[in-house]
């Protein structure tokens, strides 16, 4: 990704996060990731209960939700790392 493209990408994220610098963006992203961790913990409890129900759709839905949470967490981590590189002036 070109430098201008990277800058625009991070600027868009900063606006969405309502921050004005990389360190605040990283802190906000880390907070969102912590909230996803909390949601994952709650969902794991639900998934354990639904593992034994006779309706496979219920268990499948919970499993799908867990996958979506993990993907969202991973995407936020990638963005957080991009802000970290930007802060250090890396490529």
Automatic annotation (TrEMBL):
Organism ancestry: Bacteria, Bacillati, Actinomycetota, Actinomycetes, Propionibacteriales
Name of the protein described by the UniProt record: DUF4254 domain-containing protein
Protein's organism: Kribbella speibonae
Domain of life where this protein originates: Bacteria
